[in-house]
TrEMBL record:
Organism annotation: Phialocephala subalpina
The keyword Signal is assigned to this record: yes
Protein known as: Uncharacterized protein
SUPFAM superfamilies, per database record: Osmotin, thaumatin-like protein
Keywords of the record: Signal
Signal peptide coordinates: 1-19
Pfam families associated with the record: Bys1 (PF04681)
Length: 214
């Protein structure tokens, strides 16, 4: 299986106002929701320690309640809990492939990443990562030219309350630059990680700029 880099989650930069809110009990966890507005099938794997492959048809919605990923007692402190990556690709080569799952893992992906942390306020971190979104490993994405998987039609991430920062990756080449500045392009782009209370849900809408003419 292709190795993916889960972006490093930053716990240090959280503002005290979030901490004061405390963490909601796990049974109140919100959901990670993906809405496919792309007009073509999008393929996904929700990856923790393992993950299974699925297809999101046009206009279909994928949702999962935020999952706890306990890494083990050997990990110190806050590192005991790991992230989940909802790996996504609209690559239509997968549609034609006999082994779709194998084709998926050979494709570039955009990742909708989150960590539910039961001990570290505000309880939930999330980001969009294009670290594995470029065809050639040597492409660093910052050249503003290379496409990432949803570059053509863009995406948006919104929470169910104002506590949760919005992430916008416009479609096309705004200002001549196709790089999504609000997503991870490199693994240390930690400004792209946001936190809010774990009883919020986070909705990722893919292809926000598809028009009916397309
Ligand atoms: C699309 O998928 C195919 C087969 O998995 C892969 O070879 C190709 O590089 C992918 N293209 C992109 C842009 O990710
Ligand atoms: C695209 O934007 C990124 C982030 O602001 C910047 O680092 C990069 O140099 C830009 N590339 C071009 C070609 O303007
Ligand atoms: C999360 O829980 C807090 C405390 O019970 C509540 O004030 C807040 O409205 C909840 N947020 C959501 C999105 O349900």
């Amino acid at each position: 299986m292709r190795k993916t880099e889960l972006a490093a989650f930053l716990f240090m930069g959280l503002t005290p106002s979030f901490a004061q809110l405390g963490i909601a009990p796990q049974q109140e966890n919100g959901e990670a929701i993906v809405v496919n507005k792309c007009g073509v099938s999008v393929y996904y794997v929700s990856m923790g320690d393992s993950g299974s492959f699925g297809t999101l048809s046009p206009d279909a919605v994928y949702r999962e309640q935020f999952r706890l990923r306990y890494l083990g007692a050997d990990y110190p402190g806050e590192d005991k809990y790991g992230g989940i990556s909802i790996m996504l690709s609209p690559n239509q080569t997968i549609t034609a492939a006999v082994d779709k799952q194998q084709a998926f893992f050979q494709s570039t992906i955009t990742q909708f990443e989150y960590t539910y942390h039961p001990l570290e306020p505000p309880g939930l971190w999330y980001d969009i990562s294009n670290v594995n979104g470029y065809v050639y490993n040597t492409d660093n994405g910052w050249n503003g030219i290379r496409p990432w998987p949803f570059q053509e039609d863009g995406l948006i991430v919104e929470g169910t309350s104002e506590e949760c920062a919005t992430v916008v990756c416009p479609g096309g080449n705004p200002n001549g630059n196709s790089t999504c500045i609000q997503a991870y392009t490199h693994s240390k782009d930690d400004w792209a990680t946001h936190g809010c209370r774990n009883n919020n849900s986070i909705v990722l809408t893919l292809c926000t700029e598809v028009t009916l003419d397309e």
